[in-house]
Specification:
Number of strands of chain B: 20
Number of helices of chain B: 6
Number of helices of chain A: 9
Strand order of the largest sheet of chain A: 6-9-10-3-11-12
Distance between the termini of chain A: 32 Å
CATH topology of chain A: Rossmann fold
Radius of gyration of chain A: 18 Å
Mean pLDDT of chain A: 93
Structural class of chain A: alpha/beta
Number of domains of chain A: 1
Low-confidence stretches of chain A: none
Largest sheet of chain B: 10 strands, mixed
Shape of chain A: globular
Oligomer: heterodimer
Amino acid sequence: MTPLLDITNLHVRYQGKDILKGLSLTLNAGEVHAIMGPNGSGKSTLSLTLAGREGYAVTQGGARYRGKNLLDMEPEERAAEGVFLGFQHPVDIPGVSTMNFLKTSVNAVRRARGEAEHDAVGFLKLVREKAAALGVGEDMLKRSLNRDFSGGEKKRCEILQMALLEPRLCLLDETDSGLDIDALKTVAGGINALRAPHRGMLLITHYQRLLGHVRPDKIHVLARGRIVETGGPELAEELEASGYARFLKAA
Amino acid sequence: MVIAAEAIPPYLRHARTGPRGAREAALRRLHRTGLPHPKMEDWRYTNLAAIAQKDWRRAPAERNPPSPPSLAGDDACARLVFVNGRHAAAASSNHFPRGLHVSPLDESQVAQDRPFESWHDLNTALFENGLWIRLDAGTVIEKPLEIVFCSTHPAQPSAHHARLLLELGEKARLNIVENHASEPGGAARLVTGITQTRLAAGARLCKAGMFRQETADQALLHESVAIAEAASCDYTLLNFGGGMLRQSLEMVHAGKAASSSLRAFNLADAAHIDLLTLVRHEARETRSGQDIRALARNRGRAVFQGRIHVARDAQKTKARQMHRGLLLSAGAEIDARPGLEIYADDVQCSHGSTCGDLDEEALFYMQSRGIRRDAAEALLVSAFAADLLEEAQDLPLRARLCALLAERLCA
């Protein structure tokens, strides 16, 4: 079976600095993996490289998504192919209502996938249904995207987008940051609801707290640009107890 | 005129017929001072030399004026049409809602000892068929009054000058949609326009002004709004320049708790747009807010000069000014010169100015959601404008103006 995501010996340079130095990882459909690591280990570089942000230069190695070269695609092609990045810091876009943005995005992806666009009424119904499950109210849908949203609102809005875009590969970058305990539960519920045999998830996180709610199949420790250890869910607890010091030395 | 014909500069020759009274005084003064020039502080960015050198003709009075575009259609309470600077009675409404009075403007009503800028004298000396619009105290008219200024395309370079005096009585409320449009083609046009607005205590004016010009147009526009106690002015300006537009707006907060709010969008595609605002706070507890946006692309140039002046007695004043520029081409230019002059000690004043390209992070965010790069750029550009009008809930014909702005942005 072709893996959903196959990263081999990935080297990435950003602003003249080598950040990822030979990262390898395989994620199969149906699996949830967590990547944990200290600040500066390259977590965000990995997610932004996989999503196609400009400025992240791949100097060696590569990443294949369902057998295709992911790194050759434009960011919007990756989205159309089913890659979704949940941002650590979602960007606010004054002047574009959340609802309008959702519609533009979902229809763009549907067009690219050769599916029919949603009609206005049907889409409204769909959004309301998914939004309600995530505690995203009408008021948020009317407001400009992410503008003056609280940390929790931003992350719930990210998960709402993920639910609407129905991706195959979900990259969730520090989705737990800035969340209080109730918001964390709501967001985790949204993620769990999307776990499916055809879908894979990569949870990129500094802390163990999200992993208490979304139980990963595997945990990878990223330090100094490489995966230095892979283990089961129990690894998260060890990290929570003793920190990353052991891996920083090893790397 | 006692000035010798040969001494009259070219741009004043179309005044040769010889005005009298206040008009003559204005013309004499202008002859003495001349038009503003780039060495003057407020005229650094706009050069009137080409205008001064041209021998303008008086724009012809159209016997059968073209039917100018209407923004409001049946939604207007009445319509006033100016063709080539002159009130065209045949194209205008002749019935007005109760309490609204429209009559010819007499030159004695617009006499100024010292104009805000010297070019005002050109308008004072030469306007024809100006109008005096009055709304009685306590009258509230919901449907907007539409004022249309249109210019026909001239065979020769021609000039026309429009003048309005607008007065709202105590606690009167009026909505106005002002629409300036030019017929494309023809020779160069010099258009001047001055509106003097006076809002009595507790009055409220809500106004939208839209300026659509052609490349041959050179326009000088000025509006001064005097705001009495507890009166307010809400003003939205949409400038889609074509040639050159210099527009000045003076907001005078003369009475306690007077307030104003200004939103302006300057779209400089290939045009030169120079917007100057002078916001004066002369009384206690007055409020003003300015949200100015400029988008320049191709070879367009957008200038914003804004001054807030707070007099010594204007304690507890709150004044805010924000300018945002979006620069989309290498050949385009945006200049901003905000300024504060504060003589009171218990005030809250702020100003800020930003200028830049489209936000790369926002573009990437949209792309990562499947939106193509070009579509993401177009969405950000229209959002930049839509965000300005989002707050303007009282704006007359809001939906239509938003649509028009979006259409212009995509052109």
